[in-house]
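Collaborator request, handled under Task 6.
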Amino acid sequence: MSVPDIDKLLGIEVYATETAGVGGVIRESVDDFRVEEILVDGSKAEIEKAPEKRVLGASPSRQRYLLCVLVKRNWDTFIALKNIGKQLTLSQGQIQIAGIKDAKAVTAQHITVENCAVEDAAKVNVKDINLRPVGYVHEKLSPYYLLGNHFAIKIKAAKHAASTVEKRIAEVAEAVDSAGGVPNFFGHQRFGTTRPITHLVGKAIIERDFEEAAMLFLSKSSVHEHPSSRSARIELQSTRDFKQALHNFPRQLRFERLMLRYLVEKPDDFVGAFMRLPVKLQGLFVQAYQSYLFNRFLSERIKSGFSLNKVEAGDYVVNVERSGLPMVNVAKVVGEEAVAEVNERVEAGKMRVALPLIGIKQKPSQGTMGRIEGDILEEEGIQTGDFRVNEVSRISGRGGLRAVLTPVQGFKLHSVSASSSDQNESQAELSFMLLRGSYATVLLREMIKPENPITAGF
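Structure tokens returned to the collaborator:
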């Protein structure tokens, strides 16, 4: 089955299911893609329902972190936080999240705000952003507290009869359930949906070519972005005039403009320009390149015919918590003598096969998979030590492990019906829950099998 070229550029070179896709579009409207965050204690950030107020501890020392539910519509997470911080006169470092949420979507998530009164948080007034104070908590949020996300999705403009759409979606769901989940690829959002360049920037950084990295971020254009943005990037590519670029770049390209302001004053200090970006964004570039390598490793594992829910000698395995989360910090390499025993634990759901996110602290697998990974790294011209970026330490990539399968929980196909605007098209409404770090678009990709992921809303 043919895989779109853009998927291959992101290292996603295969499908996990053999069923025909339904086609169609996600995110025809922002409201067609809804995400609600779930924490490990069961707390759910709901889009429609106001959170139950609760205060943990009454003494001032225990009122450092104000827990809120942030509901945003069509906002990049980092830009939304920047606007909230500006209204509260707080730095972005004083606002913490458990996970980044989709931009072109309606999302609800938890945030903690440091040294902020309930009354002040309740007064935040930004278009399409709703900040709802919950109460004070003992610790600031981090990814450690995130269990996963619940998705409610509408697939529209599927050019098949409703009965065909229903049948094909059910077949994919059944295949995914039988396999124990979907391949845990990093989705399009990880790399930039309309302009997938973050992993290219990351590779240039670990190659210590900061000028190339900066110019990729600022001036590599895409036919899928807004014409004014594309025009400004193309002109900068040819002129390298940062002052003129600052004048040309649209206001919505906030992060590019931060770098450009710095480069106007110090046109040769590309390291300094990167340090003008928010800390979390700085780290995303190298992480995106690690994600690209992971996608390639996983694609090759599938193409080589190795199972995703059975180990081979030399594979990494991780334990699974009672919540279902893989314990990626507790791992081991499976020796030849332990394959049968470990596979029993994998089948029982107590362990999962994992692949490396190559970095300073993370080596490739061993055995056959290790040789496959080594060939890819050699092709890329990369070694693990390259991920230590002394020039900007916060950009360095420590690495780690990632389970190769992610379970799909609570999948429901709520309805399939003829489109209200075109009787020759159908639309489907479905919902499901994924564990943290996993992408809804990876599952939707299996159902839709889009010819063009960008125009299909991915």
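The cover message to the collaborator said: "DSSP finds 14 helices and 15 strands in the chain. Residues 291-403 form a domain with the Pseudouridine synthase fold (CATH 3.30.2350.20). Please let us know whether this matches your experimental observations."
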